[in-house]
Amino acid sequence: TQLLEQSPQFLSIQEGENLTVYCNSSSVFSSLQWYRQEPGEGPVLLVTVVTGGEVKKLKRLTFQFGDARKDSSLHITAAQPGDTGLYLCAGDSGGYQKVTFGTGTKLQVIP
Amino acid sequence: EAGVVQSPRYKIIEKKQPVAFWCNPISGHNTLYWYRQNLGQGPELLIRYENEEAVDDSQLPKDRFSAERLKGVDSTLKIQPAELGDSAVYLCASRRTGTYEQYFGPGTRLTVT
């Protein structure tokens, strides 16, 4: 069974602070997605990374895929209350087949 | 483009009763997933369909759970009989063949009392 461990599990920060969320596995993934989920809603896709070492930016969010395609990180600069939510990474094992979700990081940004 | 539609949004039932959830994926998306999500945790795959074929149901508790996608479009997930531990959010997602991204519906929050 492939496992994706996310850290930290919970994070409460002040508006304007920076933060990094990590997603780690012992398995290699062909692609990795990051989602954000708000209460009462389904996860919403933020980004997909495919190439080892790839870095993608989405406004104040920076996503990186590890060189060995086993881990990923999400960095948020100058966090805002609207960033509050559950952040999930999900790894695809290849052939668009089995997708494994991470354990989740619950972020709260305090105004 | 309409998103993934799920109904009902909320369901409260007593244990041992049956319950069914319905999902209509995004038009043209051949792959459909059912997940179960407990509060604050990541979704856990129950079953994945490629068109009308269930290609991964290894995590589906087959003694009480069943699913169908008869025409390869919408799908139904059923639990009979429900147990207290089945209380969770049941999410449906769909994906277009040849892409990585899944699109999720809003989920059905099930409470078993």
Keywords, separated by commas or semicolons:
heterodimer, A: 111 residues, six-stranded mixed sheet, B: 113 residues, mainly beta, seven-stranded mixed sheet, four-stranded antiparallel sheet, 11 strands, 49% strand
Notes on the structure:
The complex is a heterodimer of chains A (111) and B (113). Chain A is mainly beta and 111 residues long. Chain A is 0% helix and 53% strand. Chain A has no helices and 11 strands. Chain A has strands at residues 5-7, 10-14, 19-24, 31-37, 44-49, 55-58, 61-65, 71-76, 85-92, 99-101, 105-110. In chain A, strand 9 (85-92) and strand 10 (99-101) form a beta hairpin. The termini of chain A are far apart. Chain B has 113 residues and is mainly beta. Helices cover 0% and strands 49% of the residues of chain B. Chain B has strands at 5-7, 10-13, 19-24, 31-37, 44-50, 53-56, 65-68, 75-79, 88-95, 103-104, 108-112. In chain B, strands 2, 4, 5, 6, 9, 10 and 11 form a 7-stranded mixed β-sheet that branches. A 4-stranded antiparallel β-sheet of chain B has the order 1-3-8-7, with no helix packed on it. Chain B is globular and about 40 Å long. The mean pLDDT of chain B is 94. At the A-B interface, strand 4, strand 5, strand 9 and strand 10 of A face strand 4, strand 5, strand 9 and strand 10 of B.
Layout of strands and helices, then pairs:
The complex is a heterodimer of chains A (111) and B (113).
Chain A: E1 5-7, E2 10-14, E3 19-24, E4 31-37, E5 44-49, E6 55-58, E7 61-65, E8 71-76, E9 85-92, E10 99-101, E11 105-110
Parallel strand pairs in A: 2-11
Antiparallel strand pairs in A: 1-3, 3-8, 4-5, 4-9, 6-7, 7-8, 9-10, 9-11
Chain B: E1 5-7, E2 10-13, E3 19-24, E4 31-37, E5 44-50, E6 53-56, E7 65-68, E8 75-79, E9 88-95, E10 103-104, E11 108-112
Parallel strand pairs in B: 2-11
Antiparallel strand pairs in B: 1-3, 3-8, 4-5, 4-9, 5-6, 7-8, 9-10, 9-11
